Amino acid sequence: MEIRILEGDERNLCNRLWAQAFSRGERSTNWIGDDEGNDEDKPPVVVCGVFDSAGLQACLTINGYQLYFGENVILPMGGIGGVACLPASRGKGYAGALLKFAIDKMKEDKQPISALFPFSWEFYRRYGYEWVGVQRDTKLPTKILSTCLETENVRLLEDNEMERIKPVYEKFAKGYRACLKRPESIWKDFCTHSEKRFRYIYVAEFDGEIEGYVNFTLPEEGDDAHLREFVTLTPRARRALFGLLKRHEMQFTHFHWKAPEDDTLWGAFYHWDIETKIRPVYMGRVVDAETALALLKPSTYFRGEFRLKLVDRYAPWNERVLRVAFGEGNVEVEETEAKPNLRMDIQAFSQLYFGSPDADYLLRAGRVTVEDEVAYHALRSLVSGPPVFTNDHF
Ligand SMILES: CC(C)(COP(=O)(O)OP(=O)(O)OC[C@H]1O[C@@H](n2cnc3c(N)ncnc32)[C@H](O)[C@@H]1OP(=O)(O)O)[C@@H](O)C(=O)NCCC(=O)NCCS
Predict the structure, then answer these.
(1) CA 209, CA 178: separation in Å to the nearest integer?
(2) Whose CA is nearest to atom 10 of ligand 1?
(3) How far apart are CA 120 and CA 371, in angstroms?
């Protein structure tokens, strides 16, 4: 068996494999594309493959994204976009070997964190990934809404005005950990009409400032509408856009969208017919703990110190004892010979680093071993911050 990065035309070999795994063998699929990361609008994609005597047997892609981690931090992230193995070669450890290879590659490419949308939580947990964030999938019947005067401030966004909602998204995204700093390719998809249907982007605009937007296509008759994105920076923008959605009562009786853990919908109103499902946002992993910690920019009010020991079978560089000291908004991290005063596995540390579930939750769940209370409180304040959310899939 040989594992290597696929370059040039070789990348197209993956299409056949992916077609079998994800699109019922459809022949027209072009998953990987042949631009080899030369298109500036798209994130760079690394394609890794496992070869044996019969050729390419399994592949995995790493998308190079940037994530907002609150107001002041942007982190390079390796987004695992898919893993597939030919049916006759499954169960031989090929997918596992690719994940191990990808973790090494992300470290080399200076992507200190990684994330993925799992087909199985169990499968990726063994490679150090763990669920992070809590998202609220909300479904709401149009009939319980009412229009209001503020709905007069809603208008359809013109095709040439896309630039105007990007700052609204950015402001929203910086209020969370893990929203993508969206590459142009995502913005293009965001506003493209599908072959069959128009896409509608409505904005709520007050005194020339856009305070919120909603993006959707109309569903098949009888189906619920899915809002691709529903972002509001102010309560009045949400009221205004709800009024607009109310006017779609004849086109759909219900609509649903994905909202972050701290969404304030219930603060505006509650109704028995609102359905809210909660589930993890996705799985996260810290690839390189030393770099990831050093990139944080804690509040200047916080200072502290701790010594951390992680268990990380697939990233042995994370198993060194790290001394972490922070103050004045900076973090210093170095290897130390001293004994650690905090211990945990990489799965718990990844959750802590993404910030949801938080330190107290993990402590109560028995996932963190504390030998020094002061050290624990230092760690707790270092990783405190906004919730995890993303509205993009990869
Ligand atoms: C999932 C997949 C990539 C695994 O490939 P593989 O090379 O057989 O994986 P490995 O040999 O490294 O690991 C096999 C292990 O994964 C486990 N596994 C496989 N599919 C699983 C699933 N759906 N849920 C949970 N575990 C699963 C197996 O039970 C096995 O565990 P074991 O080692 O304890 O026996 C392969 O089955 C596949 O291509 N499936 C179709 C595409 C897909 O679903 N990809 C993942 C989503 S992006």
Answers:
(1) 26
(2) 93
(3) 34
Q: Whose CA is nearest to atom 13 of ligand 1?
A: 93
Q: Which listed CATH number (3.40.50.2300, 3.50.50.60, 3.40.630.30, 3.40.30.10) goes with 2-128?
A: 3.40.630.30
Tell me what pLDDT residue 27 has.
80
Q: Whole-angstrom Cα distance, residue 183 to residue 167?
A: 14
Distance 237 CA to ligand 1 centre (A): 45
> Is 0.90 surpassed by the pTM of this model?
yes
Ligand 1 centre to CA of 5 (Å) is 21
Residue nearest to atom 31 of ligand 1 (CA): 91
Ligand 1 neighbours, Cβ below 6 Å, are: 21, 58, 82-85, 90-96, 119-120, 122-123
Banded pLDDT at 125 (limits 50, 70, 90): very high
Q: Domain coordinates of the chain in residue numbers?
A: 2-128, 136-281, 288-382
pLDDT, tens only, 283-305: 999 999 999 999 999 999 999 99
Question: Does domain 288-382 bear CATH number 3.40.50.880?
Answer: no
pLDDT at 82: 84
Q: What is residue 41's predicted lDDT score, i.e. its pLDDT?
A: 81
